[in-house]
Every structure is written in structure tokens, then in C-alpha cells.
Amino acid sequence: MDNQSYHRTLICITGMSPQVVTETVYALAKSDKTTIETTVHIITTSIGAQRARAVLLGGKSPKFKQLCDDYNFSHFNLQDDNIHVVKNELGLPLADIRTHQENGAIANTITEIIRFETNKPNCSVHVSMAGGRKTMGFYAGYAISMFGRTEDRLSHVLVSEHFENHADFFYPSKQSHMITAHNGLLLDTSQATITLANIPFVRMRHELPTKALIHKITFSEAVDLIALATAPPSLVIDLSCRTISVAGKILELDKVELIFYLWFIKRLIATGEPVKRPGEFVEPDDNHPDRKQGKELVILYTKLYGEMNVNERTRDIYIKEGMTRSLFESKRSKIKKKLEQQFGPTMASKYEIKQVGTRGNSAYTLTIAPEFITIRGGEL
User: Is 7-225 a domain of CATH 3.40.50.10770?
Assistant: First the structure.
């Protein structure tokens, strides 16, 4: 893929030291073998944003522009709109992060920006956790771990001694330029070194459901969803409410899908025997429907919803016509898709209807152990 069609987002966490932005850009640009168009985003407090605007973008010598001009880093871009200020639950900008609520606000802001940016096609995300409070760096690292893809990166910058956290140092200058250290030592900024330290991280994006990837989600909600993926299985059927709950969350199915899933649960608990797909040992067409299976579904449907609620079309399909291979596969695949959308592929795999057995002698069943299944409000 050529550089013109590919893009990169650099997300920098900052506090009162906007220097980490120019330091990161310098180190990243120097480590690049190509010039990828890069949009820089800053996540900070209201005071941090004021300082970033004044130092990086404002004044007679804006440091960001100065860096890009000095080293011809024209492929890096920072705009005022990309300086994101953390806000509280009332939508008011936060000047600092000191309370539990403010801590939650920064976590959610960082999570949402990283979630949004990692959804962009043809765009990699590079997160720098060099600035801001320690908790901000932690949330940035955790968020990219939850949402990051193979192409995304996490880093920190290592600045040579005496130059780190110096108010007058922003990047190694091309020409000799003297500044004074805190101890009175004279420092030449052209002699400074900055190293980009790439930080390996575990990618957990595959543990998240589709909804969590494409819709706004809080930091705590994302953590809970990943925790569910590694928790012991739990399936609760409430017959009185006609619901199926997976790990405490209701699985959203239509009536026929719910009955189809309950049919497998009933078979698992009663005999443990898997279900043969209609026409499994004949040519792959729908000319061998299974009327016995169709009748079983209608009986279960009637038991749960009542005789009056079974429409004639349902009766015709499942009793007169019988269960066909395409109908069987359609319901199975739709349930699998909904499980993945709501709970993520890893967790969904614990609860989906799976093919078992050897080729030519295969069938379908739930692989969850019956002891992890609870039935309330009656019997199947």
C-alpha cells in the first residue's frame, strides 16, 4: 500500500509538558523508513491544552511548526481541533485529575478516542504514553491493548540526562543552542538524544463484541467485556420471561431463534446426543426435510408461547414442510453471529452451536457442560 493511501494517527498524552509531543514526533520521524502522513492528537486537561496551544501552535515561534520546518517533517500535522480536553460528566473541562470521578473521565476520554481511531481503515494508530499523570499513561496503554490491531503501536520516549523535563528543551536542535540545566550546567540542545522505546502489548481486540468496537463505550464497560471472555461459562434460561442470559447478559434473539437454541439445550440436558442436520447423508439440497425435528420445534414453541401464538406460517414450515438443511443452517449461523456481535468471538465460541464428529458422521451440539446451565420458571 502506498503512503498516499495510508495514514497514521499519533496520540500523545500530555500534562503540563507539551515537550513530549515534539520529542515523540522527532523520535518517531527519525525511526521511520517512510514518510507516512500523520495526524497528531493530544489528550490533556484544560490547563494542559492552554499550554500546548500557546507553546506548540502559538506565539512567534510555535515549537511544533519549528520542528517540522527544521527537519522537513511536513508529513506530520497538528491542528487546534485535535487537542482534546477531558471533560466531566457535566461536560465541563477538567483542569486536573484528582478525584475518582475525574479519573473516570480521563479513562473514558482516552478509551473513546483510541476506539474511534482504531476503527479507521488504512490507518495505523501510534500511542505515546510519555506525558501526563501516571494514571493517564496507564489508561492509554490499557486502551490500545483493548482496541489495538496488529499495525498499531505503543511507545515511550527516552530523553538524555538533564534534557528530560527541561522547560526550554523540545527536540535536538540542528544548530548549537545553549540552555541552562537546573543545577546551572550549560547544555547544548544539538547534543541531546531522544530514543523511541516501543512497548510490546497484548492485543485483546478479538475479545470484544462488534458493538463495543463500533459504538461509544466506557473504559469500565470494555474491561468488563474482556473479563467476561475469560470467565467460566454461565447460561441461564428463564422460561417465565422467555429469555436466555449469557454470563448475566440477555442474548437478543427473535422467537424462532430462541426456540431453536432452546431445542439444543433441551437435547443436551436430556440425552447429551448431538443433532443431525437434515439431509446430512444425502446430496446437499433441501429435498430431504426432517418433519420430526420440525414438530419438536413447534411443540417447544407452543409450550413457551402458547397455542394461540403459533402462527400458521410457522406450523407450515416446521410441521408440514419439516426442517430443511438451509433452515437449520440459517438459524445456527444467525445465532452465532448475534453471539459474536453481543459478546465477541472468544466468548461466543463457548456458547455457539458447533459441529462435532468426524467427516461423514458429523452432528451439531452445544459444547457447554450441563452443570453450567440453569433453568428457571419451569422445565423444558
Answer: yes
